[in-house]
Specification:
The protein has 21 helices and 13 strands. The chain has about 550 residues and is of the alpha/beta class. Strand 8 (about 235-240), helix 11 and strand 9 (about 255-260) form a beta-alpha-beta unit. The structure holds 6-O-phosphono-beta-D-fructofuranose (F6P).
Length: about 550
């Protein structure tokens, strides 16, 4: 049955109508203890969802919707290796990557856990060798810089996690990330590096992604221009991929390849060998902690009752705003500079997973799906776009994320940071007192409040807790995709642009006539003119 016409959906519609005119402040007046009552704590993660436009009845109805949609069965199907990615004929088993070594998870009758552990052990040996200097460059020098070349899920996860965990990373190694086909990205990443002490990790599930292969080829040329001997590639390039054939075709020794599998989606692949650069940075034990944290959240998602289940609740609250209050966007506001790449990571996770208008049965969906996810760390955002959050005409539910204990000794900074986080959620929910002063300014200075937010607090930002929070959002996205009935694990919407870009690239380099619409033809023409006049190339890396 389509979610739209289900009894719980109808009940939520009528409940929404009943709530029109009720303010968040009214809800706190009726239930003064609502803050603690609407807080869930699990293994170092706290979710306070009290500053939402919800009552206990709302939560009951949302849980009923999840039950009607058989969310619990969906969760079990995912963990059990069912073929949930229907359009690509694949299981969805990123959770197996962080399962304990003794677990049994089967895909087509084959237990995948020993394969996962085998690759993890190889990664650990390699990471330890790079960190200790046992793995060295072709000229015998110690590796000082690791450059991960990948894009999308082969970049955003490790890049975000490395930023988050730099305080846990080795000072002896610099880790950089290159993703964009824009050559400035590679040129900047290579700037100042010594080829003799640089290791490239080429990360691509398919190993056919144009951006990654183009960057990897240019990096190889950069290396060979300095060290000369093609045999050096074996000491300076390793690959992470699910496609051994393409890795070999590229010229990377399969012995230097770390494998993962087609049942790991790109945006869910941080836990696989795609995390190699992070493991080299923070060490094998730190990476095991990241996996353990994610596994802890997996256990919570799988076993906690729906009404006390953090990812389920976050997902249902998102459905509530997206479908019953027409919220088009969702802000994610980490009050921690180390999480500065989390919003970008969550954009891919959420929007590539659930930005769909066709359901699992191939029919048009009848309701809104993934919101636009965006955000910046606090307090920077406060001095930029918070004006709109407080007084604009767009309704933006927000997730605030704070970390109780920082990894620096600047106590006043942290007190101020956390004070700002709490102040913002308070101001958004309750608004301000009626302004005084000149009457003509009062309307401008009024803070209406009644703008909802969740607050997520982490005990600290360790690999373990980072693992938890990423898995939390993965499962939130799963919950929503399941409710909306879409396949959260394919991404057909990215294909057309790739095909057209290849065609236009071929036209540009072959100087062929452009056969597109008049706008595209004219734009290509302008580029051709600029391309063919004047010198434009500088040497990469200088
Ligand atoms: O184009 C989108 C996408 O397929 C993402 O889903 C994926 O994370 C990214 O490209 C990179 O793919 P790959 O790891 O195969 O290079």
């Amino acid at each position: 049955m389509s979610a739209v016409f289900s009894p719980a959906w109808r009940q939520l519609e009528s409940h929404r109508n009943d709530l029109i005119g009720t303010r968040i402040s009214d809800l706190f007046e009726v239930h003064p203890n609502r803050g603690p009552e609407m807080t869930i704590e699990y293994d170092g993660v706290v979710l306070d969802y009290s500053k939402n436009l919800v009552t206990a009845a709302t939560i009951d109805s949302l849980v009923r919707l999840a039950e009607e949609r058989q969310l619990a069965a969906g969760i079990e199907a995912m963990f059990g290796g069912a073929n949930l990615n229907l359009t690509e004929g694949r299981a969805v088993l990123h959770t197996a990557l962080r399962a304990p070594a003794h677990a049994v998870v089967e895909v087509d009758g084959h237990n995948v856990i020993p394969d996962i552990q085998r690759v993890l052990e190889r990664m650990e040996q390699f990471a330890a060798a790079v960190r200790s200097g046992r793995w060295h460059g072709a000229t015998g020098k110690r590796i000082r810089a690791v450059v991960n070349i990948g894009i999308g899920g082969s970049d955003l996860g490790p890049a975000m996690a490395y930023q988050a965990l730099r305080e846990h990373a080795s000072d002896a190694l610099e880790v950089r990330y290159v993703s964009n086909i824009d050559g400035h990205d590679l040129a900047r990443a290579l700037h100042g590096l010594d080829p003799a002490t640089t290791l490239f990790v080429v990360s691509s599930k398919t190993f056919t992604t144009v951006e990654t292969l183009t960057n990897a080829r240019a990096a190889r040329e950069w290396l060979l221009a300095a060290v000369g001997d093609p045999a050096a590639v074996a000491r300076h390039f390793v690959a992470v991929s699910a496609n051994a054939r393409e890795v070999a075709a590229f010229g990377i020794d399969p012995g230097n390849m770390f494998e993962f599998w087609d049942w790991v989606g790109g945006r869910y692949s941080l836990w696989s060998a795609i995390g190699l650069s992070v493991m080299i940075a923070i060490g094998p034990e730190g990476f095991r902690q990241l996996l353990a944290g994610a596994h802890s959240m997996d256990r919570h998602f799988r076993t906690a009752p729906l009404a006390g289940n953090i990812p389920v609740l976050l997902g249902l609250l998102g459905v509530w705003y997206r479908n019953f209050w027409d919220a088009q966007t969702q802000a994610v506001l980490p009050y921690d500079q180390r999480l500065s790449r989390l919003p970008a990571y969550l954009q891919q996770l959420d929007m590539e997973s659930n930005g769909k208008s066709i359901d699992r049965d191939g029919r048009a969906v009848a309701m809104g799906t993934a919101p636009i996810v965006w955000g910046e760390p606090g307090t920077n955002g406060q001095h930029a776009f918070f004006q709109l959050l407080h007084q604009g005409t767009v309704f933006v539910p927000c997730d605030f994320i704070g970390v109780l204990k920082p990894d620096h000794g600047l106590a006043e900074h942290h007190d101020l940071l956390m004070a700002n986080l709490f102040a913002q959620t308070e101001a958004l929910a309750f608004g301000g007192p009626e302004p005084d002063g000149p009457s003509e300014l009062r309307a401008h200075r009024r803070f209406p409040g009644d703008r909802p937010s969740n607050t997520i607090l982490l005990a600290s930002l360790t690999p373990y807790l980072l693992g938890q929070v990423i898995a939390l959002y993965e499962h939130k996205v799963f919950t929503q995709g399941w409710i909306w009935g879409v396949n959260s694990f394919d991404q057909w919407g990215v294909e057309l642009g790739k095909v057209l870009a290849t065609r236009i690239f071929e036209e540009i380099v072959a100087e062929d006539e452009s056969k597109h619409d008049s706008s595209t033809n004219a734009l290509i023409g302008r580029y051709r003119l600029a391309r063919n006049t004047g010198g434009r190339h500088r040497k990469v890396g200088n």
